[in-house]
Amino acid sequence: MPQVQVRPAQSADLPTLTALDHSYTTENVWQMETREEAGAVHVTFRTVRLPRSVRASPPRDPRLLVEAWNSRVCFLVAEEGGVVKGYLNLTLAPVAGVGWIADLGVERRFRRTGVGSVLLDAALEWARQNRLQRVVLETQSKNYPAICFALKHSLVYCGYNDRYYPNQDVALFFGANLR
What we know:
- The protein has 179 residues and is an alpha+beta fold.
- The protein has 4 helices and 9 strands, in the order βαββαβββαβαββ.
- It is globular and about 55 Å long.
């Protein structure tokens, strides 16, 4: 029985990666609330169930992976039996010793089969071998499946940026210390 293998991406993979179904379906979102009182700012996130399932697209156009390719540091592909199932692109953050995962995609029909987990494990191992101290994963506040994925893998919520993406969505950041 073939197993998912992770390997460095090759330029020949880019057409396949950009063609993956990057959309996701969710019934929940993390709703953000901010309030100021007594000289303090309070930010709260809570899970809110939507009235119906929503199919959403990622905030960045997948075709931008070609640009990411030119500045790649750790660009990985997961495949099984010659079929590309997903990818992960880890770049170096402006802060020394921090890896940044902004691109993690698994073809819709292969989700919830461990492909994302294998890619994340490989990226964390790469980060350790390259003496990074921390890895941060970013996702939209409405990408509840990605939020659950991050929490399942012991990544801890570590911040947000309002209107971060081109479509003005809120970005959430989840981090893991590697030492």
